[in-house]
Amino acid sequence: MYVDHSQDLTTEKFPFQHRRAPCWVKRAGDRWKIYIATYEVPGGLPSHREQIVNELSAVYQPSCNETQYVQSWKEEWIGEYSGPTTGLSAPARPEDS
């Protein structure tokens, strides 16, 4: 529901003094249903973190982010790909055997 980056998380006033906290509480339904996950980018510069935020925002459209991005890639840039991880398959049922 929200993605961002920070040089220093101690300055972000987590969790309930953060500027977007009211949106989180509204979306979660209760302040005690909010979960926070972090990821430290090894050797990541602010520009790396910003790019990660932009890509995650474009893919997931987090509802509490003030700025929304659109996916910047086009299908023709990548082409078609088929592999074991690109499709979902249901497990075989005993009656299908």
Key terms:
single chain, 97 residues, mainly alpha, 0% strand
Plain-language structure description:
The protein has 97 residues and is mainly α. The protein contains three helices and no strands. It is globular and about 45 Å long. The model has no long low-confidence stretch (mean pLDDT 79).
Task: Summarize it.
This protein has helices at 21-28, 46-60, 75-78. The protein is mainly alpha-helical.
**Rg, Å, rounded:** 19 Å
Number of helices: 3
By helix and strand content, what is the structural category? mainly alpha
Quaternary organisation? single chain
Helix proportion range: 25-40%
Q: In total, how many beta strands?
A: 0
The overall pLDDT average reads: 79
- Main sheet specs: none
Uncertain segments are none
Order of helices and strands: HHH
CA-CA gap between termini: 42 Å
Instruction: Please report which band the strand proportion falls in: under 5%, 5-15%, 15-25%, 25-35%, 35-45% or over 45%.
Output: under 5%
Categorize the overall geometry.
globular
Topology (elements, then pairings):
Elements: H1 21-28, H2 46-60, H3 75-78
